[in-house]
Design brief:
0% helix; Avidin-like; N-acetylglutamate synthase
């Protein structure tokens, strides 16, 4: 199993569509006893929260966010936790909006900052 997400900061590996997370979004993760949660902000996202569970290297969570245009959005995501060759952690995500149409994949990686 990959190491704990607790205290790690993640950044998207690429920009997403407008109104979604992008390269300026920062996720601050916490993990304890199978519970995973994070706060995030940056880019088109004013404030976002996610909460879920981790079983082995799979994180299953729901997220909600407030965008700079004043709209809110929510959805569901499952992430595979892997380690990069340089020792940083990567989350390979499969997400689906629940408040609107759409789904996709994305990757966030542990920040060096």
């Amino acid at each position: 199993m990959a190491r704990s997400l607790d205290g790690l900061v993640f950044v998207p590996a690429a920009d997403q569509a407008p109104g979604q997370v992008g390269r300026r979004t920062r996720f601050e993760y916490h993990e304890r006893d199978g519970l995973v949660w994070a706060d995030y902000a940056g880019g088109d996202v004013v404030k976002g929260h996610l909460i879920g569970t981790r079983a082995a290297d799979t994180v299953d969570f729901r997220y909600v966010q407030l965008r700079i245009d004043g709209t809110t959005a929510s959805g569901h995501c499952t992430s595979l936790v892997t380690e990069l060759p340089d020792g940083r952690v990567r989350l390979e995500e499969n997400w689906t909006w629940e408040s609107q149409e759409g789904s996709g994949t994305s990757t966030v990686e542990q920040s060096l900052d």
